[in-house]
Amino acid sequence: MLIHELKNEGGKFMKLRIQSINFDATEQLKAFIEKKIKKLERFSDEIIQTEVSLKVIKPDTAKNKEALVKMNLRHSEAVATKTADTFEEAIDLCAFAIEKQILKTKEKKDHISPKKIV
Predict the structure, then answer these.
(1) Right CATH number for 2-111 from 3.30.160.100, 3.40.1350.10, 3.40.1440.60, 1.25.40.80?
(2) How is the chain split into domains, by residue range?
(3) pTM here?
(4) Half-sphere exposure of 54 (CA within 13 A, CB side)
(5) Measured distance CA(42)–CA(95) in Å, rounded
(6) Which residues of 38-74 are buried (b: 16+ CB within 10 A; e: fewer)?
(7) What is the C-alpha separation between 108 and 101, in angstroms, rounded?
(8) pLDDT tens across the length of the chain (118 residues)
């Protein structure tokens, strides 16, 4: 298990935890994950912690790499699980799904109008 504290542009820290189940993730894979997660910060500065779990399911079949990304935001949570031929592809798919969830949450938050004080 690998735990990082990443500093974003605003000077805030986000924890990143990478867990590879029943195998050792390469430094290249860890760097790829860190880069993808840092890119998600441009959509929200409310990311507190991100947990990434990687595992191989049914080793002899295609599309056997599973990635689970769970992102804790200040007032919500975004979760994505994807299966692909490579961990990089699965992480890409998860990042895209998380991005959509973050944008949807921001959209809902922006549409809620404040109550008028009478």
Answers:
(1) 3.30.160.100
(2) 2-111
(3) 0.80
(4) 23
(5) 12
(6) bebbebbebbebbbbbbbeeeeeeeeebbbbbbbbbe
(7) 11
(8) 555 555 555 556 678 999 999 888 999 999 999 999 989 988 888 888 999 999 998 777 788 999 999 999 888 899 999 999 999 999 999 999 999 999 988 777 766 545 545 4
**Contact status, residue 33 vs residue 18, Cβ threshold 8 Å:** yes
Note whether 44 and 52 are within 8 A (CB). Answer: no
Q: How far is CA 90 from CA 76, 94, 113, 115, in A?
A: 23, 6, 37, 42
